[in-house]
Amino acid sequence: MVKTRSSISPSHSVKVAADKKKMEDVSDDGDRDDSDRSGGSGGSSDGSLAEDLPEDYDSEDLEVEVRNDLKEWDLYFKPSEKIQGKVMLFPNQDNIVVKNINSKLTKDQRKLFRGTCFGYFLDSHPVGFQSQLVHNALHREVYQKNEKEMWFKFGDENFRFSLAEFAVVSGLLCVGDADLSKYTHRENAFVDRYFCDQTVTVSAVEHRFMYIDFKSDEYAVKMAVLYFVTNLW
């Protein structure tokens, strides 16, 4: 058993259902309307799949069995094994997150946000995203030994997607893996103030950003950055 970066993730509706369950006991300033922020069409109507997931479930932990007969540069999926996809997540093509940040932050706060590495995204235009294209590309992933890279076969050639390619596409300054261990047991006034009563989830971050009246420009921008990186897609 190995973990692959192309592991099949649960539908967005499952994640939303789990997030809503964690938000039930949370109260904040303003009323919450989940119907406007579901992010896509629902999955199974009875919610059985969501109920079977553990409380601390993370799609990154999903293990996928790899065939023992795979050789380097072999396709993970044989043509006869391809999975028929169904669109369960409708991407944020209209840049709703960016629009919300621009409308929520004050002029001074937007200036501070522009000073972050994500600042130039405030001027981004709607994105045309084809989930079917990504689904098709994942069927073309080939087995290779570098866990920090993904390689895909198109025609007779193999093409790499790694941190370097991500940096080129996104325009972000990517310098390698960050050491997160130094933040594990460190006190954080921002987290203690806004997430002391719950687990930090995608929907919790969105709720906090949209409905809290921030008195501190610094905290408003920190929440905007967190909202951006967790809710953009």
Automatic annotation (TrEMBL):
Every DUF1985 domain range = 138-231
Where composition is biased (Polar residues), the residues are 1-12
Region spans: Disordered: 1-56
| InterPro entries linked to this entry | DUF1985
Q: What protein does this entry describe?
A: DUF1985 domain-containing protein
Protein's organism: Cannabis sativa (Hemp)
